[in-house]
Amino acid sequence: MDLEDVFEALASGRQLKEAALDPSVQSQLAEYGVFATEGVLSLQRNELLDSATIESELNEATRMWLRRLDVLPWTESTNSDLLELSHDRDIDGWVRTAEVQTSGRGRRGRQWVSPFAKNVALSVGISIDRSTAEIGAISLAIGLMTSSVLDALEIEDVKLKWPNDVLIAQCKVGGILIELADAQRPASLVVGIGMNVNDAPGIDVTGDYRATRVVDHLASCSRNILVARLINGIHETVRGFEEFGFGAFKNRWALHDVLLGRQVVLSGVEPPITGIGAGIDDEGAYLIETDTGLQRAIGGELSLRISDD
Questions:
Q1: Per residue in 241-271, pLDDT tens?
Q2: What pTM did the predictor assign?
């Protein structure tokens, strides 16, 4: 039985004897937070993702738009799956989530590793009738939506770090990864959200922040309900962005800006730029007040970090 077979068995509710597994598989399972109790692997106490539960929590508009919801025991990457599917079909309304990703990706190609059946790895295929020049800011709008979902759970001190990090109390809880599947209008996007719900590494993969979990700030949190609220939010946000553009989100995003008024360093350029965070402009670029005036940071390979000075 290989690693993926074990994931599928556990997601179906089966119990497995650890001794029956190859030691190499046991070692791999430990990397994904799966351990035996008295020699038995079981997830009976975990809330597993369930498509019927998720769909029951979707609002009417989202249900009408939804074409397919895949809940998988494992996949290499939910974003990569939808990008691959987009080569020969329309992925608008196609949603994919998984208990675990074996090759999860974050911004700038970083690997995102999350324990099995603990967190959220969600990707949504959706079309938007806006130019590619405009939709670069949609990751900010999706980040704002994600912060609003956490706000609605009465979690305090939810902030956003440009361009795609979601923080609670200065610690990273999630991230956004938007990828363009087809630039021809209406453009086709894959909107990916990863969130630490029940488990998190001590340090976020970027090395910029400590990581945190949703349950560090709540007594409990249903992953199924959280996934449904994020799907609702993605659909509503993209439709609002399509109609009104980024201007409809800019002022609310600024209220969550963790870098505003703080000393920041813009890396990815030579020489790095140091200054004071001055917020976002109408296109979603980040502004830095320097000794020589405002500098404008855009997406791609650039990253903003709070200065150590």
A1: 999 999 999 999 999 999 999 999 988 888 8
A2: 0.92
Q: Identify whether the C-beta of residue 291 lies closer than 8 Å to the C-beta of residue 299.
A: no
As a whole number of angstroms, the distance between CA 135 and CA 284 comes to 10
Q: Which positions ≥6 away from 18 have C-beta within 8 Å?
A: 26, 36, 39, 40, 41
> Which residue reads 């030579």 in tokens?
270
Cβ burial, residue 163 (10 Å; 0-12/13-18/19+):
buried
Long-range contacts of 260-264 (CB under 8 A, 24+ apart): 262/306, 262/307, 263/306, 263/307, 263/309, 264/288, 264/304, 264/305, 264/306, 264/307
Show contacts of 250-255: CB within 8 Å, 24+ apart: 250/280, 250/282, 250/284, 252/144, 253/140, 253/141, 253/143, 253/144, 253/160, 253/280, 254/279, 254/280
Q: Any idea what DSSP says for residue 167?
A: E
Q: E strand or H helix at 161, and its extent?
A: strand 158-161
Over the stretch 109-155, which tens digit does the pLDDT of each residue have? 556 667 899 999 999 999 999 998 899 899 999 999 999 999 999 99
